[in-house]
Design brief:
Layout lengths: L37 E6 L4 E6 L12 E5 L1 E3 L3 E6 L5 E10 L7 E8 L9 E4 L4 E9 L2 E6 L3 H8 L14 H6 L7 E4 L11 H9 L3 E7 L22 E5 L1 H12 L4 E4 H12 L8 E5 L14 E5 L6 H10 L1 H13 L10 E4 L1
Parallel strand pairs: 1-17, 3-12, 3-14, 4-11, 14-16
Antiparallel strand pairs: 1-2, 5-6, 5-8, 6-7, 7-10, 8-9, 9-10, 12-13, 13-15, 16-17
């Protein structure tokens, strides 16, 4: 069955992707132990909904299928600072390292709040006594900031885990472990690929015992992935570009699975976006890296992804629209209403969904 057969078309207003979610449904802590979360299973062909637990996930895959995971690692990149001139308090979310300035200073792109009246040249006193300087404003609340040497080491020592703002508490030591997948390898994200948080090493042992191959790629997640879209037309909006890489080895795993009729299971919308970026309708995937701003929303015809592991997302977010493109807006919103009736936990630390 083609994806378009089970999908609504013509929704180009963000209002069509809104729903009400009382705050008590938002998970502020993950399920413990990891992997003990619930799992809602959506069957697109049957338009059916099943309730299970994530421990059952490996048994939904068959020999010859492949699972695609995003190996990005979340940096502890939230830093609190004061403005040297005024003493005003600031919060900085360091997104990525940029090219060095002409004078050899290291520069990072950072989101700053509050950003009003923050000007080029402002000196910032960072936690632990380090200093930084605002080099230039790039857009909105985003700035290029000149930082001390060995800044990644500084972040590892002083940075706070960048849990999302809808989790209304301060990040703590537990978040350093919990807001990270067990297979995270390459540092570069300022938000977690949250569908992967449910997976344990035992999950992978069971998958491999069933003859399921694992393909690994990278998409460094920025805050734009989970940021709510602006009201109005969906088709007029864009996502921030994010770095991705898919290797020859990963492509071989995926191409083998497709060649033998196996299904490609994407873990998370980030993995799905990379697969659709490089898939392009070609019979096989080729290694690639760069920056992608692919924005997937109804109506979109998926070329590579056959099944999607995801979480329950924010209203009006790009990740919700991707899920709606994959399974149909009405089906997804119906599933969300059932999730509320059944007491599922929403958002980054919440329960999981498998769309077949």
């Amino acid at each position: 069955m083609k994806n378009s057969d089970c999908r609504d078309t013509g929704e180009d207003d963000l209002d069509a992707f809104e729903f009400d979610l009382p705050e008590n449904f938002i998970a502020s802590r993950p399920a413990v132990p990891r992997g003990s979360s619930r799992l809602m299973i959506l069957d697109r062909a049957a338009q059916s909904i099943e309730h299970s637990v994530f421990e059952s996930f490996p048994y939904r895959l068959d020999e010859g299928d492949c699972l695609v995971v995003n190996e990005t690692k979340v940096r502890p990149c939230r830093i609190f600072a004061t403005r040297e001139e005024t003493g005003g308090k600031l919060e900085l979310l360091f997104l990525r390292k940029c090219d060095k300035a002409a004078d050899g200073e290291d520069r990072w792109e950072a989101m700053v709040r509050p950003s009003r009246r923050l000007k080029e040249g402002a000196v910032l006193r960072l936690a632990g006594g380090a200093t930084a300087r605002v080099a230039e404003k790039t857009s909105g609340a985003t700035f290029l900031v000149e930082v001390p040497d060995r800044f990644e080491d500084y972040l590892d020592e002083r940075g706070e885990t960048p849990i999302p703002p809808y989790i209304r508490r301060k990040a703590d030591a537990d978040d350093r472990e919990h807001y990270q997948t067990v297979y995270a390898r390459v540092a570069g994200s300022s938000a977690a690929p949250t569908a992967g948080l449910h997976f344990t090493r035992e999950t992978f042992r069971r998958l491999q015992a069933r003859g399921v191959e694992i393909a690994k790629l990278i998409l460094h997640v920025g805050p734009g992935t989970f940021r709510p879209l602006k009201p109005g037309k969906v088709s007029s909006q864009k996502l921030d570009p994010e770095f991705y890489e898919i290797t020859s080895e990963a492509c071989q795993v995926i191409n083998r699975a497709r060649g033998r009729g196996g299904r490609v299971f994407a873990v998370g919308t980030t993995s799905a976006r990379v697969l659709e970026t490089v898939g392009g309708g070609t019979p096989s995937l080729s290694p690639s890296k760069g920056r992608t701003d692919i924005f997937i929303y109804p109506p979109y015809e998926f070329r590579t992804v056959n099944a999607l592991v995801t979480n329950f997302h924010l209203p009006g977010s790009s990740v919700l629209l991707l899920a709606c493109a994959f399974a149909g807006r009405e089906f997804i919103l119906r599933a969300y209403e059932e999730a509320k009736r059944e007491g599922y936990r929403f958002y980054s630390y919440g329960d999981g969904m498998l769309i077949l």
